[in-house]
Amino acid sequence: MIVLDEQNTRDALPFPALIGTIEDMFARDCVMPLRHHHGVSVPGEANATMLLMPAWVPGEYMGVKILNLFPDNHTRSLPTIFGSYLLSSGKTGEMLAMVDGGELTARRTAATSAFAARYLARADAEEMLMVGTGRLALNLIEAHAVHRPLKRIRIWGRSQQKAEELSAQAASLGFQTEVVTNLASAVHSADIISCATLSSEPLIKGEWLKPGTHIDLVGAFTPAMRESDDEAIRRSRIFVDTREGATKEGGDIAIPLKSGVIDADDILAELKDFATGLHAGRQSADEITLFKSVGAALEDLAGAILAYQTVIGNQIA
């Protein structure tokens, strides 16, 4: 069995290949049992979350991710997410690889958003607003830039220092970056808005949105959390990674569904529909599109398979 640490995992998952691999997996018959999603109390701190996410392609590969999310780890200068992915043979059950779960999650999440944006963001999208400064942020910037000609990256975060640090990291990769403090103004000028926060209150307001915007909602991963308000939902054509996950786990969809702001028919497609050609995505330059991601186990499986095959291929070469 091979073991891939954080750097090994990053090197084995270049975004162009990963985006395509995830799209291919959504088109396949991948089995995804209901994930185990457990709240874990941490005395004196915010509750943590333990996720167990199994998936398999019959006769080929199978795997499970164990992921621990501790929101207050920033107070200890530790990552919010720790985890591992165990990849096994779908024919024999032999354990093939242990992949760093935090890096796999960050990269597959960003790649999934970029896959959705290929269908939902305008082809000429040049300005991206990154809302949030955590681990996902730089990955989202890199991934969205694979298929869209991003020329300006604007960054908003609750911490000015973290926003400046993210801006410097993105600039070192060749992006033109700017830290912004006026969120309303930044939202109004953006072509792509990507949110990766732990917010329980809406950050993106519908009244700020210009025609043609694509909204990518990655954070707010529980039914009580949300990054967009009701007006943003009303004005948008809505898409999700999976209907089952987004309607139950992501507050950006679950809350307006429960309150009657939208109904189930307002969710126009899930990613499988793009991958299999059942839905073409964006229909006009002026429409506002909104994509809600809560994560699907097949994304992890796709990334783990790609990482494993990349490393094995390099060893053979």
Integer average pLDDT:
95
Largest sheet: 8 strands, parallel
Radius of gyration, Cα only, in angstroms?
19 Å
- Overall geometric form: globular
Question: What is the structural class?
Answer: alpha/beta
Contiguous runs where pLDDT drops below 50 for at least 5 residues: none
Strand tally: 14
Separate helix tally: 11
Q: How many discrete domains?
A: 2
Enter the CATH topology name of the largest domain. Rossmann fold
* Name of the top-level CATH class of the largest domain: Alpha Beta
| Architecture per CATH nomenclature, i.e. the level-2 architecture of the largest domain | 3-Layer(aba) Sandwich
Percent range of helical residues: 25-40%
CATH homologous superfamily of the largest domain?
Answer: NAD(P)-binding Rossmann-like Domain
What is the succession of H and E elements? Answer: EHHEEEEEHEHEHEHEEHEHHEHEH
Beta strand %: 15-25%
* N/C terminus separation: 19 Å
What's the arrangement of strands in the largest beta sheet? 9-8-7-10-11-14-12-13
Oligomer: single chain
Keywords: NAD
Pfam families: OCD_Mu_crystall
Organism: Rhizobium oryzicola
Family: Belongs to the ornithine cyclodeaminase/mu-crystallin family.
